[in-house]
């Protein structure tokens, strides 16, 4: 990852109150790469942008609910 | 009398106690002796209450002496994962910051249900730190104490497999009941999300946390499930529903989503899976090849939601005393802290869409259940960080042992892992059955028929 990206991650971490030495920052950058890949998979699912999804998730299938 | 607790099932014990062929004191004594003999190497228990347990067992025998037991589990020892409150015991969550936390004042709802049905809550079993991972250190597999039992409910699964209790509670947010059940050769069921109360359980990701049973057989698992669901009266009827000889699966349609779930598994796992399909066909089930294209996205949704929510739950400690956390937990929480609100909401929105896609697959193919390997590999050595596949590629242990389970946490469906064979090192392989929402017992019907026909539950760890 570019050093500019490392600096951006460091700034974001500090902004949320995380104090990181260089080794931890390196681990975090690597972890965020993994999260980015997960998010890429999530983004393949089309969603309604105005659905804010704040209600609790209900796993029941609407036509088959036994609840 | 001599008891073999490694082969005794919960159902057997209930029958023997009711028939007065076995006393609760004998059962408890044997359980404690077994624990003494095995737990130095397995390390599946954090804390036990032997004196309390014996007192409760003796009281159970006194109660039985005056008439039939009013509760199904009267005097039977069960284990509780150390994420779940048990009155009078500490809920340490395997976290250094909670070593001296005050004992819980009340049982969690799940523990209370088992206690109400007469169970003796023998003690707390080892969890991965904060239930966030698959190793469950220091617990080890009864099949090979050099190997992990899986996690995060590794202590509960190992305790059942080692015969130190007849059932245990686990929690499952990304596979934490099913993975350890698979790796140590027992049965574990994640109920439908929201089906059982998680009140009194230390959270990992409230949008996906579930609690469920781990036991030696599907019948035992169903018994514990009914107790947890507050349906004690339904337990006797399970006797006919789950006959020891098993049953047929004529007319049942079982989906096999090969893409994603069989793309990258060890050869012995693939072989055991093929053999399981053959058994199901012999029972009359129709095997239906199907494709769920959103499986990988579903796993992404589960992991994204759990990363963000667990970072929020441990927010204060991550900032005030991160040095008290293990490296794996700390790294996970730090990364989760930097996920944007936009991405979190996107994952929540995608989850609703994914529920629709899996419902469509079941509907289109008229499926009663799907099957998939519970894990892509058998239990790794404790020092291994990665799983190695036949093509030489590797995968981090934490990612490998949630890859095939986490998609079902995003959909919220019930899923049960059942033993389905061994690898060349004589390590157990697990098969997952995934059902329709709120259809836990229907799922157990299919899993039970497979279990009895395949017979792997009869194989016991060497210790």
Give the topology.
The complex is a heterodimer of chains A (67) and B (463).
Chain A: H1 3-15, H2 22-42
Chain B: H1 10-18, H2 24-42, E1 45-48, H3 50-65, E2 77-81, H4 109-116, E3 120-125, H5 154-161, E4 168-172, H6 178-184, E5 187-190, E6 210-215, H7 218-228, H8 238-241, E7 253-256, H9 258-261, H10 267-282, E8 286-289, H11 295-313, H12 315-320, H13 327-337, H14 341-365, E9 369-373, E10 386-388, E11 394-396, H15 397-403, H16 406-411, E12 415-422, E13 428-434, H17 440-454
Parallel strand pairs in B: 2-3, 2-4, 7-8, 7-9
Antiparallel strand pairs in B: 1-3, 4-6, 5-6, 5-12, 9-13, 10-11, 12-13
Largest chain-chain contact? A-B, 41 and 45 residues
Identify the quaternary structure here.
heterodimer
The coarse silhouette of chain B is globular
Q: In which range does the helix fraction of chain A lie?
A: 40-55%
Number of strands of chain A: 0
Number of strands of chain B: 13
Q: Could you tell me how far the N terminus lies from the C terminus of chain A, measured between alpha carbons in angstroms?
A: 49 Å
User: What is the averaged pLDDT score of chain A?
Assistant: 87
Please provide a written account of the structure.
The complex is a heterodimer of chains A (67) and B (463). With 67 residues, chain A is mainly α. Chain A has 2 helices and no strands. Chain A has helices spanning 3-15, 22-42. The N and C termini of chain A lie far apart (49 Å). The model of chain A has no long low-confidence stretch (mean pLDDT 87). With 463 residues, chain B is an alpha/beta fold. Helix content of chain B is 41%, strand content 14%. Chain B has 17 helices and 13 strands. Chain B has helices at 10-18, 24-42, 50-65, 109-116, 154-161, 178-184, 218-228, 238-241, 258-261, 267-282, 295-313, 315-320, 327-337, 341-365, 397-403, 406-411, 440-454, and strands spanning 45-48, 77-81, 120-125, 168-172, 187-190, 210-215, 253-256, 286-289, 369-373, 386-388, 394-396, 415-422, 428-434. In chain B, the strands form 2 sheets. Chain B has an 11-stranded mixed beta sheet with strand order 1-3-2-4-6-5-12-13-9-7-8. Chain B has a two-stranded antiparallel ribbon with strand order 10-11. In chain B, helix 4 links the parallel strand 2 (77-81) and strand 3 (120-125). In chain B, helix 5 runs parallel beside helix 6 (178-184), helix 11 (295-313) packs across helix 13 (327-337) and helix 11 (295-313) packs antiparallel against helix 14 (341-365). Chain B is globular, with a radius of gyration of 21 Å. Chain B starts with 9 loop residues before the first helix and ends in a 9-residue tail after the last helix. The model of chain B has no long low-confidence stretch (mean pLDDT 97). The chains are: A mainly alpha (67), B alpha/beta (463). The interface between A and B is large, with 41 and 45 residues.
